[in-house]
Amino acid sequence: MTKRSDNKPGKTVTRRTIIKGGTSLGVMLAAGVAPSFIREAGASTLRKVDFMLPWLFVGGHTFEFAAQAEGWKKRGLDVSIQRGYGSGAAIKAVSSKTVNFAEASYGTAVNAVSKGLDVIAIGAKLQKNPMAVSCRKDSGIRSPKDLMGKSLVQAAASGDTLMFPGFVKAAGIDVTKIKRHMVHPSKLISSVLNKQADCTGTYYVSNAASLAHNTPSVHFMYADYGLQFLDLGLISRPDMIKNEPDLVQSMVDGAMEGLKLQLLDPEKALDYMIAARPELKTKPRDLLLTHSGNTNFLSISDAVEKHGLGWMDEGDQTRTRDVVIKYMNAKNVPPIGKLFTNRFAGTVKLTGAEWKQARAKSAKYNPKA
């Protein structure tokens, strides 16, 4: 007989006594599915989960690798992080059940749902639209209206190109006075660096950071000119929410703990990513930190400060849906309740002091700075 901490007699609990003592729990263990309290107690078997990124291993994804090492792992999950081939490919992988979770553009996801794919947004990373026009500083461009008479390269199928008409209209620009050229995505940055163009269409979290890493740059965010909507974030499927809500909650909570670390200690989050992907040692560390910093700046909003990380403001959900209908000509788009859910978001929060710290760290990545 052993003594429990409350000094009352008790029996030593073993796996066999648990199975004998509860039929349903015994079935769970026999099936190899450990309930959360056993996982947290140190069970050696982790549940394997595949997770797909929207694109390459860049600094804005350090939070997922922090989650892989900490947040997901302590919840009993062994998460394999796969590189992506665009948000569309990640969405198709989730809808087809090739993977159960991914990060993807919410605009692309809403458009995909309108075409019959089966995905739902479960926790936003970017609270602000990252689409932008980025220019060399030595071009003399200081405001969007200065684009008139200058040259701009864009990729024909890119989201920023699709929504460019809305940006120029809101900014009061005569688009016919801009010298626009469509080039392959791989030529965007080099065209500007080689002075074949003054500006390029960018995403602030990726190629805008690459441009700024190589030359002083100025950036004009679409969101500052009326095109504000949610962008990159976690997605899954409605059947996962119905059948495995605990797993969905663990994935969201673990990811948002990773995002919290990325906001507060980007160096440590990056170390986790490089440990998992050693090939990144060949990349400039300051470039990866710029990716991360730009991402962090766009991940902060009043909504997440109030409700917790991953939260999706209802107004931003509506604007995201509206943008897809207007600029992607989407038909049969479901209401926002079928596209987004806050059921799993908001449980990971920052204190007031931590938010102050996060805002201070990301301030230098403000495109207006």
Describe the structure.
It is a single chain. This protein is α/β, with parallel strands linked by helices. The chain has helices spanning about 15-20, 25-30, 35-40, 60-70, 85-95, 105-115, 160, 165-170, 190-195, 205-215, 240-245, 245-265, 265-275, 285-300, 300-305, 315-325, 350-360; strands spanning about 1-5, 10, 45-50, 75-80, 100-105, 120-125, 130-135, 150-155, 180, 200-205, 215-220, 230-235. The chain has two domains: about 45-125 and about 230-365, Periplasmic binding protein-like II (D-Maltodextrin-Binding Protein, domain 2, 3-Layer(aba) Sandwich), CATH 3.40.190; about 130-225, D-Maltodextrin-Binding Protein, domain 2 (3-Layer(aba) Sandwich), CATH 3.40.190.10. The chain has 17 helices and twelve strands. The strands form three sheets. A five-stranded mixed beta sheet has the order 4-3-5-12-6, sandwiched between helices. A five-stranded mixed beta sheet has the order 9-8-10-7-11. α4 links the parallel β3 (about 45-50) and β4 (about 75-80). α4 packs across α12 and α14 packs across α17 (about 350-360). The radius of gyration is 23 Å and the shape is globular. About 45% of the residues are buried. Residues about 1-45 have low confidence and may be disordered.
